[in-house]
Amino acid sequence: MLMVCLELINRLKNTLLFNDHRVLDCGCGVGRVTKHLLLPLFRRVDMVDFAQSFIEISKTYIGAEDFKRVGQQYVESLHTFEPAENFYDLIWIQWVSGQLSDDHW
């Protein structure tokens, strides 16, 4: 799965659909996708998750050196979170989308 995601992001970047400056990881959990997919490809990664405990664990999981490139960490539900308009080059929603029902859209 990781390789498919890397390929997708690189194809989008190569077609100049977006830059590599800032990405938002929605439903980031402890930061697995942030660490292994997004930090290698973007200069700054912001994270949002509803669980304070996941956000707290993420600093240890990601590691001190890589964590320097993590920007904002938001503890909020995606139901209410509103990212700033035109701020992110990419908004990544991977595992959390499976938790949403038709009513959420």
What would you note in describing this structure?
Its EC number is 2.1.1.244. The protein has 105 residues and is of the alpha/beta class. Helices cover 33% and strands 20% of the residues. The protein has one domain (21-104): Vaccinia Virus protein VP39 (Rossmann fold), CATH 3.40.50. It has helices at 2-14, 32-38, 52-62, 64-67; strands at residues 22-26, 44-49, 70-75, 90-93. The radius of gyration is 13 Å and the shape is globular.
Keywords:
105 residues, alpha/beta, Rossmann fold, four-stranded parallel β-sheet, 4 strands
For the secondary structure, the number of strands is: 4
**Topology order in helix (H) and strand (E) letters:** HEHEHHEE
Major sheet, described briefly? 4 strands, parallel
Globally, the shape reads globular
Percentage of β-strand residues: 15-25%
The rounded Rg comes to 13 Å
CATH class: Alpha Beta
Please state the structural category.
alpha/beta
Name of the CATH architecture: 3-Layer(aba) Sandwich
Number of helices: 4
Protein name: Alpha N-terminal protein methyltransferase 1
GO biological process, one term: methylation
Enzyme class: transferase
GO molecular function: N-terminal protein N-methyltransferase activity
